[in-house]
Write a structure and sequence with these properties.
The protein is mainly α and about 300 residues long. It contains 16 helices and two strands.
Length: about 300
């Protein structure tokens, strides 16, 4: 007898919440630019940081097949680089590779992993070793993490030009042209200097986005035990589009963001049992307890086959 798909996991015919989300993010970004100088000092900048962070969460949703069944159409909604740093196609390919759960956290294999091998650690100098420990703190993740993440992506551009590798040439060309348009718009409409948008808005937005992934994976023998459930408060859930329920997302990567909480509530005990009790109760606790204290060791312990 065929199993019936639970109602919480059934796809919606029309994803109205995601369509509204696309309008809300792009509309609020433009509204903040228009009202930038009329807002109290710092409020416009804070608003743009949050919208840029939200945009990164939207890009994650788009690459997982929302709001339409057309990857090309979904990609169009993620091309305009409000959050600046990642060409959409490059982020998409890297992130989908991350969803090979059997390889999660493995250094050099998981593209979003943040652990290092014991051998690499032994052979490295003291500055690099210190950097790895700093990145295991919340402050290090917020302040230094974006720099290293941006470097890892953007250094590929001159390398590709040197090798005459055109694999991502179109993605880079589209991204750079749209980024130039964005920086012209923010200066023309709001008087925000391009450098200020890059370093004062897009950079902290990426840091805030990276707080979500600060401790969402850990080494463990069973792949399911490597993925966290973080029962964060609703502002965090909205900002991260419920990706804090990360074990649910990995179990059902095609499940739309607004359906994830119901899927979790319907089988809370089951998810926590299957992920080995890897459970957090919010991001404030991570910031408080691990601001300057590493959450764990940067050295990957190695896993059983």
């Amino acid at each position: 007898m065929a199993q019936t798909t639970p109602a919480t996991l059934r796809p919606a015919s029309i994803e109205w919440p995601t369509w509204l989300l696309i309008l809300a993010i792009h509309g609020s970004w433009l509204a903040l630019l228009v009202a930038y100088h009329a807002l109290p000092a710092g409020l416009g900048q804070l608003g743009l940081v949050l919208v840029a962070t939200w945009h990164l969460s939207l890009q994650h949703e788009l690459l997982h097949g929302h709001p339409t069944r057309s990857p090309r159409l979904n990609q169009l909604f993620g091309l305009f680089p409000i959050s600046v740093w990642y060409p959409f196609a490059i982020y998409r390919d890297s992130h989908l590779s991350h969803h090979r759960d059997a390889q999660l956290t493995r250094p050099g294999v998981d593209p979003e992993g943040n652990y290092v091998t014991a051998e690499a650690y032994r052979q490295a100098g003291p500055a690099w070793r210190l950097q790895q420990w700093v990145l295991r703190t919340a402050v290090g993740r917020l302040l230094l993490g974006p720099l290293l993440a941006v470097w890892a992506v953007w250094v590929q551009l001159p390398k590709a030009l040197w090798r005459r590798d055109t694999t991502h040439a179109q993605a880079w060309l589209v991204h750079l042209l749209l980024l130039a348009l964005l920086l012209w718009l923010v200066q023309t409409v709001a008087g925000i200097a391009p450098v200020h948008y890059l370093l004062g808005i897009a950079y902290p937005a990426l840091g805030l986005a990276m707080l979500r992934s600060f401790y969402e994976h850990r080494p463990a023998d069973l792949p399911a035990h490597r993925i966290v459930i973080n029962e964060a408060a609703w502002p965090w859930r909205l900002l991260y589009l419920n990706n804090n329920y990360h074990a649910v997302h990995h179990a059902h990567p095609g499940l739309a963001w607004y359906r994830i909480p119901a899927a979790f509530r319907a089988d809370r005990a089951g998810y926590l049992q299957r992920n080995g009790g890897f459970h957090l109760t919010g991001y404030a606790g991570l910031l408080w307890h691990h601001a300057l204290t590493p959450v764990d060791s940067p050295i990957h312990p190695g896993l059983d086959p």
